UniProtKB/TrEMBL annotation, chain A:
Keyword annotations: Cell membrane, Membrane, Transmembrane, Transmembrane helix, Transport
UniProt source species: Cohnella zeiphila
Family in the record: Belongs to the binding-protein-dependent transport system permease family.
GO biological process: transmembrane transport
Protein name per UniProt: Carbohydrate ABC transporter permease
Automatic annotation (TrEMBL), chain B:
Key words of the record: Cell membrane, Membrane, Transmembrane, Transmembrane helix, Transport
UniProt keyword Membrane present: yes
Membrane topology: Multi-pass membrane protein
Transmembrane residue ranges: 27-53, 90-111, 132-157, 177-198, 219-238, 280-301
Gene3D superfamilies: MetI-like
GO cellular component: plasma membrane
Record's subcellular location: Cell membrane
Protein name per its UniProtKB record: Sugar ABC transporter permease
Lineage top rank: taxon: Bacteria
Gene Ontology biological process terms in this record: transmembrane transport
Originating species: Cohnella zeiphila
Tagged with keyword Cell membrane: yes
């Protein structure tokens, strides 16, 4: 690298500088939000902008859990993420396995029927009316059942199954194993990478979605985390413009940011896994299933 | 005689087919729940688009509501809001194409120039992270930084004697906020595909060009860019086919009564009109209008993409 011209060296410097700034821009909001959530209201009033608080308080976190229903909301979100993802995986695998068998009569029709739902949909209103007539409104199951199977994920898993070497499976079948046994004992253990990726797709989707709960749920006891956070952000925003609202020990900003931190934390904890498996998933999705 | 044997053959054919189906009955049983799911939750709502041609009445229900032909569609196209929401949807999509699409390509090209592996990994790790957050959380971060009262940037502005700016509630800021927040959230994520394409370029091409005395810029122009061109074109075609999807989850979070005039899109309008104002027929018609155009665009995009030696689905 010693034979670089001056212009090329300057170019390299610019590349590193731009990338460093971009990385900091992605990191900084988290650092700031965490700082605000731990800063006592009195310190904000005294010092103005606080990036590193002198004193740390958990008051905002206590407030979030005791007065804003976060405990309840956490349970709902955990339910939809854990139970929802388990059911997602069960039915996705059950659909993908037969569809990966080229010999299965009618396979093409089934595939077309599934792919078509990715390109055309009845839309919000007919779906809402369906959910209503199924009496799913205002139940926790409405967060799980209407998104039970993602067509996209079925196609990805099916594509992975097709690439597996068929010989082991065939010899197991010759030895008298049923299709279900072959799937369970041979195909699934070989498919761990794709199963990990897809279950994370589903889990993050469940953790992050908020609109279905807004449309289908009125009962505040059934609101997931994202909806409660949304209410805290929107309803308290008007107040936060008014300094008089900050006279209590917990500032509005601290309360909002504690809520943001609590909602983000599980994603941050899981991030090392997410990054690894999602990156694979992006590339899997780009190869035709 | 002939007819009889033909009938016999058909019956034989049927029983053979039945036998193959029975042979694979476990497979079909596995497929059954998925088929029930797709029929109930995807195809029945498709049947529900009949509502678009009716004056839907909640009490009467789908079958007994009155047929009104294309009235709902005419009302939509002639409505004062038509050009507003179509315009907002398409303008936002085009902004997102112009800036949101090129940003990840640029990031991938920059990362490709980095020789220090740990630095590359740190930048990737930090820029991929926002993709995993919900729009609610991203909005929370925006409140922390941009809120008029105690957002960081406005506190800085005020400390330095400037007037605070209502980034989140002023209509002039609405579109820039939508585009910037989208870039922030997905720039790293979008770069992954291009990085993979860049990694796939044959190093011998660079060697050959370098031996010919090509400068870095010429390498970029003659080797790197042609190497990712097909992926870029493919992604562009795919994005273009979704021009009527301006990003519902995001805009539903960012829009409010103050800035809505600039970022109210088809989807947010359908939600408000259909589920809040209960103009069910009209909202369904608009949803159908969008779905049909979207379907046509995806089919067209797939045709174009095939020419580029790849398929979208």
């Amino acid at each position: 690298m010693t034979n670089l011209t001056f212009g090329e060296k300057a170019g390299q410097a610019v590349v590193y500088l731009v990338l460093t700034l971009l990385a900091l821009l992605c990191l900084f909001p988290f650092v700031y939000v965490i700082a605000v959530s731990f800063t006592p209201a009195t310190e904000v009033m005294r010092r103005g902008i606080v990036i590193i608080p002198e004193k740390v308080t958990l008051a905002a976190y206590k407030e979030v859990f005791y007065h804003h229903g976060f405990g309840q909301a956490y349970q709902i979100t955990l339910f939809r993420t854990l139970v929802g993802t388990a059911l997602n995986m069960l039915f996705t695998v059950l659909a993908a396995y037969p569809l990966s068998k080229k010999y299965l009569p009618g396979r093409g029709v089934f595939l077309l029927a599934i792919v078509f739902t990715m390109m055309f949909s009845g839309g919000l209103i007919p779906t809402y009316l369906l959910i209503r007539s199924l009496h799913l409104l205002d139940t926790a199951w409405v967060l799980v059942i209407p998104t039970l199977i993602s067509a996209f994920n079925v196609i990805i898993v099916k594509g992975f199954f097709e690439q597996l070497p068929g010989e082991i499976e065939e010899s197991a079948r010759v030895d008298g194993a049923s299709e279900l046994q072959a799937l369970w004992k041979i195909v699934l253990p070989l498919s761990m990478p794709v199963l990990a990726t897809i279950s994370l797709f589903y889990a993050v989707g469940h953790w992050n979605s908020y609109f279905d709960a807004i449309v289908y749920i009125n009962d505040t006891k059934l609101m997931p985390l994202q909806v409660v956070l949304r209410n805290i952000l929107l309803n308290l925003q008007a107040q936060s413009a008014d300094p008089a609202a900050n006279t209590e020990y917990v500032s509005t900003a601290a309360l909002q940011m504690a809520a943001v931190v609590v909602t983000t934390l599980p994603i941050l904890v899981a991030y090392p896994f997410l990054q690894k498996h999602f990156t694979k998933g992006v590339l899997m999705g780009s190869i035709k299933g | 005689m002939d007819a009889k044997s033909a009938a016999g053959r058909t019956a034989g054919g049927l029983s053979i087919r039945l036998r193959t189906v029975l042979k694979h009955k476990t497979m079909y049983l596995m497929l059954l729940p998925a088929m029930v799911y797709f029929i109930v939750f995807k195809y029945i709502p498709m049947g529900g688009i009949l509502i678009a041609f009716k004056n839907y009445n909640m009490v009467l229900g789908l079958w007994d509501s009155k047929w009104v032909g294309l009235t709902n569609f005419k009302d939509f196209v002639n409505g004062v809001y038509f050009w507003d929401i179509m315009g907002n949807t398409i303008i936002l999509s085009l902004y997102k194409l112009a800036f949101g699409f090129s940003a990840p390509v640029l990031l991938a090209l920059l990362l490709n120039e980095v020789q220090t592996q740990w630095f590359k990994r740190v930048v990737q790790t930090l820029t991929y992270l926002p993709h995993f957050l919900s729009w609610v959380i991203v909005y929370g971060l925006m409140v922390a930084l941009l809120a008029p009262g105690d957002g960081l940037i406005n506190m800085l502005l005020k400390e330095n004697g400037f007037a605070p700016i209502s980034f989140l509630t002023e209509s002039a800021w609405a579109r820039p906020m939508v585009v910037l927040s989208e870039i922030w959230k997905d720039i790293g994520w979008g770069a992954i595909l291009y990085l993979a394409a860049l990694a796939g370029i044959d190093p011998s091409q660079y060697e050959a060009a370098r031996i010919d005395g090509a400068s870095k810029l010429r390498l970029l122009w003659h080797v790197t860019l042609p190497g990712i061109r097909s992926v870029v074109v493919l992604m562009l075609v795919l994005k273009l086919s979704h021009i009527l999807d301006a990003g519902f989850d995001q805009i539903f979070m960012l829009a409010n009564t103050f800035n809505q005039d600039k970022i109210d899109i088809i989807d947010t309008w359908v939600y408000r009109e259909g589920l809040q104002r209960l103009k069910v027929g009209l909202a369904t018609a608009v949803g159908l209008f969008k779905a049909v155009i979207g379907f046509g665009l995806v089919i067209a995009a797939n045709k174009v993409a095939k020419k580029f030696d790849g398929q979208i689905w």
